[in-house]
From TrEMBL:
It comes from Setaria viridis (Green bristlegrass). It holds the Pfam family Exo70_C. The keyword Protein transport applies. Residues 1-84, 203-237 are annotated as: Disordered. GO terms for biological process: exocytosis; protein transport. GO terms for molecular function: phosphatidylinositol-4,5-bisphosphate binding. The lineage of its organism: Eukaryota, Viridiplantae, Streptophyta, Embryophyta, Tracheophyta. Residues 305-659 form the Exocyst complex subunit Exo70 C-terminal domain. This is Exocyst subunit Exo70 family protein. Belongs to the EXO70 family. Residues 1-18 have a biased composition (Polar residues).
Length: 673
């Protein structure tokens, strides 16, 4: 079977590996492939060992060769003990192979073909029982195992082109060579698969310890599994193993077993990649499972996925690309590029399908940060895949091109999802039209939610700018800043409407002050929000707060201060109208009692605003009352009359003001008792 020109059949995400036969049909490929039956021929013959059976067969063939010489007048190389002389036979075979390209092709005897085939089979049989089949010789020379396997592959190819191999002259010998080649490939496949699965390089007996072997998985860095591009991870195989894999791959591809070799390598590395992702906690989930998850469970899955995806892109793919480049080097480089592209496509497409499942779940504001985390991971994957595409440009690999396209598509879907989730915030503000005012004029829950949400969202301000720009949100100006401004305007309008739910205008202004101050503090406390909204917006908010303050003072304290005026108490000639004075003190006492009883229950949670209000009120009211008291209190008779009308000292008024806005409703009467 000549499959040198075949490339691995492209796999769908983590599907069973497949390849195409000559008829175009799809068949499963495992590590045994089509050579399983041939392995049975290496079993024990008549209760003896395989090596003994081969020796017996060689001795019989050697006797036959002695009786009749080949075309070249010789009986083929042999040894005194009857065992084929592999070195001498190899020289003849090399001469035959190289001679096929000349004007006068070199011929080879059937006996030589038979002996060489037996010699190669004997080498393989002896190697099967060795602890390290690929160990270098004592002289330092590479393992002698691959050379005869490679040579018999070249011989089979040469016989296929030679008149001797194509005719009936050496039919039996050609079949013998072909059979040993299949046996050699079956052996090599076993060894290739075993080395892929367990990359240990066996040590000498006295060097072996109790250490666990390195496994062929992508080992993530111990502390930073989401390392950036260029982050080096421990290679999956030691250098000696990589070199053996390279030599084996070269032999298999040369012998026409490229499809088997490439599929075996692809499946092994794909399984290793799977194991690495599982080591990071990532497990494959189908769309139905993801859609049914609670948000708490899905949130945890997204965190794991993001970590695993970043590792796969920044560490895993680079590791696999390097391995493919090393194992499939030189004239087989195109095969290596194809394997890597298929591997990258299979792994990444399955991971990217998770994002589609997340995008299908119900949109909710709390999902924004996790969707943006996924968006950033996918966005950062684009230049990595672009770099691989540039490196493999001569191949123009369709698998990598498809992966690039899918990444762009997923990024677009995540961008749309994130933008829609953020716009849900605007919808929730518009929909919040509650008719129940917040007790005490405190900060409304909507205000707290929106401002904290914006502060959290602005941790992703540059990403959100990209998201809205991806959706055509504008060029020169920051499209996210425009969205942010719209949210603030919506919130301001919503609060203005809610302030009208209060029957007391003073409380309405306290409500606006509380919420406006909270908004301003959150903006001042976030350099990102402050920078995007701009200083002009902050100044406007400060102006609004001052106006609310003035409105409150006018609604509450203007009437109180009016009671402390001289108008009506004194006649034109300066005489005191005592009935009017009594009424003024009665009204002032009642007003202060009402203010203490009601506004003591009002809430100003910001200590600075609370202090500013108290100080501004006291600065106007206390001096006015002290002056009024000083001028008119002596007009009451000492004793019961004074106690009846002059119930508060200037210090008492100051104390009442200092107890406002702390959420504790009291009255002057209860306080004085």
């Amino acid at each position: 079977m000549d499959s040198r020109s075949q490339a691995p059949y492209k796999c769908s995400s983590f599907s069973q590996a497949t390849t195409r036969d000559d008829g175009g049909r799809t068949r499963e490929v495992d590590r045994n492939f089509s050579l399983g039956a041939l392995r049975d021929k290496r079993d024990v013959h008549h209760g003896g060992t395989r090596e003994q059976a081969i020796k017996e067969e060689d001795e019989q063939e050697d006797g036959e060769g002695t009786a009749g010489h080949g075309e070249n007048g010789g009986d083929g190389a042999g040894s005194a003990g009857g065992e084929p002389d592999l070195a001498a036979l190899s020289a003849e075979i090399d001469a035959f192979i190289s001679g096929q390209d000349g004007d006068a092709p070199v011929t080879v005897s059937e006996a030589t073909l038979e002996k060489f085939a037996s010699a190669v089979e004997l080498v393989i049989a002896r190697s099967e029982g060795a602890e390290d089949k690929w160990a270098a010789e004592a002289s330092g020379e590479p393992s002698p195992l691959l050379a005869p396997i490679t040579r018999i592959a070249a011989l089979a190819s040469a016989l296929g082109k030679s008149p001797e191999g194509g005719g009936s002259k050496h039919t039996a010998a050609v079949h013998r060579v072909t059979g040993v080649l299949h046996r050699a490939m079956a052996f090599l496949e076993d060894e290739f698969h075993a080395l892929l699965e367990d990359p240990r390089v066996p040590k000498a007996a006295n060097e072996q310890g109790a250490h666990e072997p390195d496994r062929c998985v992508l080992r993530p860095p111990p502390s930073d599994a989401s390392a950036g591009p260029g982050k080096e991870a421990a290679p999956p195989y030691p250098p000696e193993t990589v070199e053996r894999l390279r030599a084996m791959a070269d032999a298999m591809i040369t012998a026409g077993y490229s499809t088997e070799c490439m599929q075996m390598f692809l499946v092994a590395r794909r399984n290793a990649f799977d194991a690495a992702l599982q080591g990071l906690g990532y497990e494959k989930s189908n769309i139905d499972d993801v859609v049914k998850m609670t948000w708490e469970a899905l949130e945890a899955e997204i965190v794991t996925w993001t970590k695993a995806f970043r590792h796969a892109i920044n560490v895993g793919l680079s590791t696999e690309h390097d391995l493919c480049t090393r194992v499939f080097a030189g004239r087989h480089a195109a095969a290596g590029r194809g394997i890597f592209a298929d591997l990258a496509r299979c792994v990444m497409l399955h991971m990217l399908s998770f994002t589609e499942a997340v995008a299908m779940t119900k949109r909710a504001a709390e999902k924004l940060s996790k969707v943006l985390d996924m968006y950033e991971a996918v966005r950062d994957a684009s230049p990595v895949v672009e770099a691989f595409l540039a490196a493999d440009e001569p191949t123009n690999n369709s698998a990598l091109t498809e992966l690039k396209s899918e990444i762009a598509s997923v990024r677009s879907r995540l961008s749309e999802s994130a933008a829609a989730i953020f716009r849900e915030l605007q919808g929730s503000i518009r929909a919040d039209a509650g008719k129940q005012p917040v007790p005490g004029g405190a900060v409304h829950p909507l205000t707290r939610y929106v401002m904290n949400y914006l502060k959290y969202a602005c941790d992703y301000n540059s990403t959100l700018e990209q998201v809205f720009r991806d959706g055509g949100g504008g060029g020169g100006d920051n499209p996210f800043a425009s969205q942010l401004m719209e949210v603030m305007e919506l919130l301001h309008g919503n609060l203005e409407a809610k302030s009208r739910l209060y029957k007391d205008p003073s409380l309405s202004n306290i409500f606006l002050m509380n919420n406006g101050r909270y908004m301003l503090q959150k903006i001042r406390g976030s350099s990102e929000i402050n920078a995007m909204l701009g200083e002009a917006w902050a100044r406007k908010q400060s102006t609004n707060l001052r106006q609310y303050h003035k409105n409150y003072q006018r609604e509450t304290w203007s009437r109180v201060l009016g009671l402390l005026r001289d108008d009506g108490v004194l006649t034109v000639k300066g005489h005191v109208q005592k009935p009017v004075l009594k009424e003024r003190f009665k009204q002032f006492n009642a007003a202060m009692d009402e203010i203490q009883r009601t506004q003591g229950a009002w809430v100003v949670s910001d200590e600075q605003l609370q202090s500013e209000l108290r100080v501004s009120i006291a600065a106007v009211v206390v001096p006015a009352y002290r002056s009024f008291l000083g001028r008119f209190s002596q007009h009451f008779s000492a004793g019961r009359q004074t106690e009846k009308y002059v119930k508060l000292s200037a210090e008492d008024v100051e104390t009442i003001i200092d107890e406002l806005f702390d959420g504790n409703a009291t009255s002057m009467v209860r306080r004085r008792t």
